[in-house]
Amino acid sequence: MRPQTYVSRRSAATATSTWSRNFNTVRHTQKKIGPLAYSFLVGVAVLGIGLIYVAQSTRATNYDYELSAIDSEISDLQAKKEDLAVEKARLTSIAASENSEVASTMENAAAAGYARE
């Protein structure tokens, strides 16, 4: 590496208050926001939080609708199951009565006479 052969004028110029050539002569100050811009920023923040809240509440409502649809489907299926259980009991009782000994010894029904007073 080469040894440093130049002297920085920047450090010397910043120590003094004189302006020299090739240096910025502009001083930047921080900008402050006014009350109107501040209230606008607060309004935008409140609006954003409100939109997030509404989005979350509609998501919960959608879950509630899905759960109620599933509950109604479950109740419909339980009603069908009960109907099928009744139908099964009816069909098994008919089959059991046809195969029973008591039913086989019974006579067929015929027209009977009326009782007179």
Can you give a write-up of this model?
The protein is an all-alpha fold and 117 residues long. Helix content is 66%, strand content 0%. The protein has 3 helices and no strands. The mean pLDDT is 80. The chain has helices at 9-15, 35-99, 101-105. The protein has a domain at 32-97.
Summarize the structure.
The protein has 117 residues and is an all-alpha fold. The protein has a domain of 66 residues.
How confident overall, as mean pLDDT? 80
Structural class: mainly alpha
Distance between the first and last residues' Cα? 142 Å
DSSP summary: helix tally: 3
Low-confidence stretches: none
Q: Approximately what portion of the residues adopt beta-strand conformation?
A: under 5%
* Main β-sheet description: none
The helix content, as a percent range, equals 55-70%
Calculate Rg over CA atoms: 48 Å
Shape: rod-shaped
Q: Secondary-structure element sequence?
A: HHH
Number of strands: 0
